Amino acid sequence: MTELVISMEDITEKYRDIIGSKAFSLHSIFNTGLPVPSYVCITTKAYEKYLESSSLKGRIMLELSRKNIDDMRWEEMWDTSLRIRNMFLNTPIPESLADNILEFLDERFTDSPVVIRSSAPGEDSSQTSFAGLHESYVNIKGTDAILEHIRLVWASLWSDAAFLYRKELGLDIKHSKMAVLVQKLAAGEVSGIIFSRDLENGEQMVIEAVHGLNKGLVDGDVEPDRWTIDRNTASILQYSSPSDRERIVYLRDTGTSLKRPSDSISRTIPLDEKDIPRLYDIAIKLENLFGYPQDIEWTKKDNEIYILQSRPITTSGDKEKRWYLSLRRNMDNLQKLRLKIENELIPEMREDARMLSSLKAENMTNSELLREIIRRKEIYDQWNRKYTDEFIPFAHGMRLFGQVYNDMLKPSDPYEFMNLLSGSGLLSIRRNEMLAKMAEMLRNDPSLADKIKSNNIDETFSKKINTFLEEFGHSALIRDRDDLLKIIAEMASKTAQSIHEEKEITDHEEQYLSSFPEKDRTFAEELLEIGRISYRLRDDDNIHLGKIEHQYLISLNEAKKRISGRLNDPGPVDQIDEQEILKALNDDSYVPAVRKHNKQKDKVAGKKLFKRQIQGQPAGRGLVTGIAHVITKNDDLFNIKFGEILVCDAIDPNMTFVVPLVSGIVERRGGMLIHGAIIAREYGIPCVTGIPDATRIINNGDEVTVDGYLGIVTIRRK
Amino acid sequence: MTVNNLEKDLKTLMKKQKLAVLATCHDNEPYTNLIAFVTSKDLKYIFFVTPKATRKYSYLHSSRKTSLMIDNRSNKESDFRDAIAVNAEGNVREVGKKQEFTSLYLEKHPYLEDFLNSPSSALMRVEVIKYIVASRFQNVMEIDMT
């Protein structure tokens, strides 16, 4: 026997560290005589051998050294994880190791379908449990597919969720390892979960059950029947049925899917009165075995109850981490969310913006204006919350599409999938096209430029400006005609960037679709559509949000105008906080406090320490050198010159009208699916994101090289 | 030490060490960097990769002369007895990313594949004029490669 693969019967205490927590816990359950589906364990030694025999260890190290994970945003973690996952997808298991694994699998499973589960050392210790951070795959058949899914489980050691819990997991390339369980699929007629002790009430136990496989229950797609049991007497205290039993997880040729069960199944309670005491006994037995309350997954097949896994019950704690983990959505959720966003939320948002713009702040009395500011802020905050709750989760459509695309096509560039999403008719691109047309009019008719300078614009051009402002203005940034004319004039000075045409998009789409078997083409098409809509809405929803913010800012600016006369120096009117403005509106004699400008903060770069070369994320391919134009306030956007490098903190779609003018983008906020990256890709402009303090360490006028291939920004100070 | 032994030790060192210090010169000012290198089998050439936006890349364009240092020190007293330090002098030029060069490079540094293949990086080749090998603290020998 090698220590690369160990069968369930051969597991002993000495292998505990190399088989991981899940495998060892199953071994303990198996020893009690409870039924456990047959399994073998691919140990952490096999993982290490795989890493060492390929270049993966070094490549993961390089990827992780790109930026301190503590400084990464969630989106950057997802990107890092995606890149690492792609490395695993494109690195086959060496033949000798694969032979070793297959020898064990052939012996035990012949042609039967298997489940492939993660079993990371320490993942489910007595004090902690990290359910859902690593991947499991159900109903995998055939040696090639099994070997590929073993690699995917290995890759999930570096999942975005694992990065989020890196401190708790002690995640690092030197020590972190992953073992994998390959287990016979026990496709039960009924499955479920037992919480041997209810976290809310220590005297109670909870049993949940669904028809079919328990994947639907674990993933939150299928609502279970639920029993609350008295731990002391084993009697049922409460039973609650789900709102319906309209969905069931069933086995496809490979993998699983949701479907509607037969009427007789959907009318039937999954467990009968004999099952509850059996499950109760199992739970008490396992709790005694492990010494802690247990979260137990089980399935019932031919009246035998199999234990799939058992781990300690813990709470996941951190609210923000839980929110991030909840972002994982399946197609079904995404379809529903799409309908809600397109049919309800965006029309409501537009209506709110329209309604607010019909009320003129300048005609209000001070007390009316005060109430209006509060109301607009509330409306804006409410939409911001909806943005977090509904719009950001929908952006997961892009991620889901990207992951499936990479699984099917295994491209060397993990972001190749973005080429199929671009050209989806973003609002910001339409806006930029309108600007480009007006710039062209100006370029073709020099007299028009003179007329603009003398504020004597002809009617045709004036109409175009008005149409633009009606459709896209007023955003939070483009405040008036003067702002707009400045940008158009600059655009007219040369031929600005146009959208990067993806000539072979049809071929590319065909290549994607044909990578799926015929029967899955509809799924592939639906997923592509969700990906495209998610990509488009991610940009568009910000434009709509920007319009509401603009209305709030109008009311605030009107108030600032009214109170500026009370200041000794009217200059710093922008440095008055909202609360001070409201106080001043309420009391005509009140002189608002001006926020002190922290000059020290602006000198972070210092004179002696100069950051010359910084590594971020390669978000738009290409290499360009140009003069930096740093955006620190809104007005900076309107002074941008053709060919400059846009350096900013975080681009939102309301700012991207300047993108056709620039030759490169550097952004503090990191990620591949953020607006800056999306728009740079649309225009084919080199872009590096995730440069910490970008707007502080780069000065206006610095010569900056943006290496969008490697994600490097080089600064040359004159 | 015989010439054969010296060459053998030199080859072992060059194979084992992954990083070298590259010295360039610009406006009469010396400048050094760490680079990941590989040598050709006959030790006549040393290859390394650099992003094009770097100082070393632009310096090497203005002066092709370079000196590289490769050593196996372990930062202990025993280094005075055991460490070998090699100085390679030569001229550098950018070469195309031909398969024979890239496979040689990736055999030693497979994790640098993306770095090598990036259109924004350059593959550089040093044509070695001579190696200067220092061992046992102060023993120095030269190998002429021309």
Q: What's the short story on this structure?
A:
By secondary structure, chain A is an alpha+beta fold. Chain A is 45% helix and 15% strand. Chain A is built from 25 helices and 21 strands.
CATH architecture of chain B: Roll
Report the CATH C-level class of the domain at 5-184 in chain A: Alpha Beta
> What is the quaternary state of this protein?
heterodimer
Q: Would you count the extended β strands of chain A for me?
A: 21
Whole-number mean pLDDT of chain B: 93
Biggest pleated-sheet summary of chain A: 8 strands, mixed
Name the CATH homologous superfamily of chain B.
Answer: Electron Transport, Fmn-binding Protein, Chain A
Counting helices, strands and paired strands, the structural category of chain A is alpha+beta
Largest interface (CB within 8 Å) is between:
A-B, 18 and 15 residues
- Give the overall pLDDT of chain A as a whole number: 85
Helix-strand topology string of chain B? HEEEHEHEHHEE
What is the molecular shape of chain A? globular
Observed structural traits:
heterodimer, A: 718 residues, alpha+beta, Dna Ligase, domain 1, D-amino Acid Aminotransferase, Chain A, domain 1, 8-stranded mixed sheet, 25 helices, B: 146 residues, Pnp Oxidase, Chain A, 28% helix
What does this structure look like?
By secondary structure, chain A is an alpha+beta fold. Among the domains of chain A are: 180 residues, Dna Ligase, domain 1, CATH 3.30.1490; 135 residues, D-amino Acid Aminotransferase, Chain A, domain 1 (2-Layer Sandwich); 67 residues, no CATH class; 115 residues, Phosphohistidine domain (Glucose Oxidase, domain 1, 3-Layer(bba) Sandwich), CATH 3.50.30.10. Chain A has 25 helices and 21 strands. In chain A, the strands form four sheets. An eight-stranded mixed sheet of chain A has the order 14-21-20-16-17-18-19-15, covered by helices on one side. In chain A, strands 9-8-7-6-12-13 form a six-stranded antiparallel sheet. In chain A, helix 3 runs antiparallel to helix 4, helix 14 packs antiparallel against helix 22 and helix 17 packs across helix 18. Chain A starts with a strand and ends with a strand. About 1% of the residues of chain A have low confidence. With 146 residues, chain B is α+β, with helices and mostly antiparallel strands. The mean pLDDT of chain B is 93. Chain B has one domain: Roll (Pnp Oxidase, Chain A), CATH 2.30.110. Helices cover 28% and strands 45% of the residues of chain B. At the A-B interface, helix 3 of A face helix 5 of B.
